[in-house]
Amino acid sequence: MIWHHSNLVAEVRTQSTGRVALLHLDATQPVVLEGTAATIWELLDGRRDQADVIAELEAAFEDAAGQLAAQVEAFLASLEAQRLIEPAGSTN
Amino acid sequence: MSDVLNAEVTSNEEGGFSRRRVVKGVAWSVPVLVTAIAVPPASASGGKFEALLDFNTPDTVNFVQQTRPAVAGQNRPGKGPIGFHLLNKSGATSGPIVGTITITPSPATATSDPVVGINTFSGGTLTVMTPPPAVGTFSANFSLPGGVANNATATFLLDFYYTGTSKTVAIGKQFNLTVSFTSPTGLLALPAVLQLN
Asked: Which residue in A59, A79, B152, B182 has the fewest CB atoms around it within 10 Å?
């Protein structure tokens, strides 16, 4: 599965803290991504598939508990549920 | 949000992920969505959209052992919500409700520890991540395509299972449950702690 950011999402980021604020244009409240959540957001570029994203994260982070892949999958499900990301090839 | 005011506004990056942001060896932590502005407490007045978890009084739930649900003594009592409800006082039909329910071990568990997931769900459609995880985070999407009419309440009921064949391993384990979805007032996230006793 390849994901890309929804075209209906406005994005503001701070380079200093790595925080990303997102607002879906049909929503009234923004959400904020920090840390690993912000990193995953950056990796969802419409080119990498889900396995690529997980592989890059596994290369970059120490995952002592072995939870990374499952947690990324759950997080992507949350982003999709909030309509912040869409499968590549879909349109708004 | 003050630092956001000084932030650089960007469109989606064509260049994708910048490795400068990640230092190899940094400890992994659970990625989460955070609401930027606190949602006011639910209220039945004032044109609001109420979303609350529901609990028994006292706070008790039953965790069914997934592998041996009919074996006496294997199901475990514990604490956690029995469901959640949405009360729409916004003045209009809500539109479709879609969201996610995640249950994450707290703290992260060893591979021999149980997973807690949703055993039964009513009030909407639940789509469980397939297959459910053998270890770690349970995740499922839920939806109510018809939404919630104005001045109406939608009630969702749920209960839980735990995995593994040893009830003694499960005793005392805690999990973080989050119900998140987009409502007419924006993104709502309802957190709770589950505990097996």
From this structure: A59
